[in-house]
Amino acid sequence: MTEDNTPKADEAPRGELTVRTIAMPADTNANGDIFGGWVLAQMDAAGGIRGVERAQGRVVTVAVDAMTFIRPVWVGDVLCIYTDIESVGRTSFRVYIEAWARRFKQRVREKVTSATFTFVAIDDDGKPRPVPPEQVE
Predict the structure, then answer these.
(1) 18 closest CA partner among 75, 66, 74, 84
(2) Which SS3 state, helix, strand or coil, does residue 117 take?
(3) Is residue 71 assigned to a domain?
(4) How many domains does the chain have?
(5) Within-domain flag for 8
(6) By C-alpha distance, which of 12, 16, 33 is closest to 24?
(7) Domain range for residue 76?
(8) Which CATH number do you get for residue 79?
(9) Between the chain's N and C termini, which has fewer beta carbons within 10 Å?
(10) What sign for the dihedral angle of Cα 12, 99, 66, 83?
(11) Kindly report the CA angle at 47 between 92 and 126, in degrees rounded to 5?
């Protein structure tokens, strides 16, 4: 990142591509930009996907670190969400999540935001359960 919080030109996404979706007109605010809440929801879904894989079962989001939106997302952009598990505790774990926009009709990819989400593994009764040891493939 540069001093003004914009990505460097050669910066690459961190983590594993987990979700790709297209921004549609129904997801816009009154200014025609995509709602930040829609981007947040896509990031939460990606973190949940990665979390279920890591925890081998149900997970819930319990916290999101501060998000700073660097650039807007526009209709037609492909939103690419990357996830990277940062740490694992007994019942919880932290997932660093980045959102990148592949601009409509262009080959340009730009980072739009990032945050760290905390998830807790839960059992069928919704109670915290231990996160199993990581399986080596």
Answers:
(1) 84
(2) strand
(3) yes
(4) 1
(5) no
(6) 33
(7) 16-121
(8) 3.10.129.10
(9) C
(10) negative
(11) 50
